[in-house]
Amino acid sequence: MNLLYNPWPWYVAGPLIALTMFILLYAGKKFGMSSNLTTMCSIGGAGKYSDYFKFDWKSQRWNLIVVVGAIIGGFIASQYMSDNTVKINPEVAQQLSNDYGIESAGEAYLPTELFASEQLTNPFVLVILILGGFLVGFGARYAGGCTSGHAISGLSNLQLPSLIAVIGFFIGGLVMIHLLFPLIFS
Amino acid sequence: MKYLSYLTIGIFFGIIMYKSEAASWFRIYEMFQFGSFHMYGIIGSALVIGVIGVQIIKKYNIKAIGGTEMNLHPKKKGVTNYLIGGIIFGLGWALAGACPGPMYVLAGAGYYSILVVIAGALLGTFVYGVVKNKLPH
């Protein structure tokens, strides 16, 4: 039972993610999660404001069902298969605590300093969450895909545009963590 | 029946994301600090198998269910939108600690603050759709 309960190592998770992609390819679809955001905008009536959202969203229903599944999967995994803590490199955890006062590494799945529901009344935290989400949504559409669409699907198909996008993901991530975090959090 | 299989794929994917901790803000932070091989191992091993599998599909012309072509179209050529869009995505990925798949997984796991992140992502998607034609691509 420990195999199910303990965190899964990378060499289990990576191949299973590849399997997810192949199952979707075999179904005649493709593995890409961020396009669901476009579909939801379209369902919400965004077509009134831009032709970008004018498409037959019903053709994307299958992917929304995948999203529903992912929600259920998150529920099952967190309720029955995990103690909901993440043990990262102790040095990194120490650095998070020393530099930014984020003390919950090793004790929570997400930093409680940012994701505890009580923190939603904190304007600073609210701005971080909205801004983070905004950049993810905007950037994924501008780049034409996210981690699943480019880093997994696109690179597996040896697509140069996906390589450029993934290099961009890492430039952005490194700039955020190494240059902007010290300005934002300390 | 068809929808049931997509639901199953989604559940499978959600459990993998949560159990591998790829949905954890801490793991994303640690990755960009080069503090562990974990995330690189996940993406790298998925990729190695992905590349080999796609090559096999192409070599033997394996069809999708029902005999249709697999959805392996080449991406549109370009640099600007992929690079700038990618950088913007990366900034958000590191800040929110979640990409578009794990967001839903975390919502299911009961981290309701992630709904604010999802709302932000929907807003970002919407704004892109509105200003798209004014951006360099």
UniProtKB/TrEMBL annotation, chain A:
PANTHER family, per database record: INNER MEMBRANE PROTEIN YEDE, SULPHUR TRANSPORT DOMAIN-CONTAINING PROTEIN
Source organism, top-level taxon: Bacteria
Protein family according to the UniProt entry: Belongs to the TsuA/YedE (TC 9.B.102) family.
Major place of residence: membrane
The keyword Transmembrane is assigned to this record: yes
Keyword Protein transport applies: no
Subcellular location: Cell inner membrane
Membrane topology: Multi-pass membrane protein
InterPro entries: Sulf_transp_TsuA/YedE
Key words of the record: Cell inner membrane, Cell membrane, Membrane, Transmembrane, Transmembrane helix, Transport
Residue spans crossing the bilayer: 12-28, 62-81, 124-143, 163-185
GO CC terms, sorted: plasma membrane
Protein name in UniProt: Sulphur transport domain-containing protein
From TrEMBL, chain B:
Top-rank taxon, per record: Bacteria
Keywords in alphabetical order: Membrane, Transmembrane, Transmembrane helix
TM ranges: 38-57, 78-98, 110-131
Alphabetized InterPro entries for the sequence: Sulf_transp_TsuA/YedE
Pfam families: Sulf_transp (PF04143)
Protein name as annotated: Uncharacterized protein
Lineage: Bacteria, Pseudomonadati, Bacteroidota, Flavobacteriia, Flavobacteriales
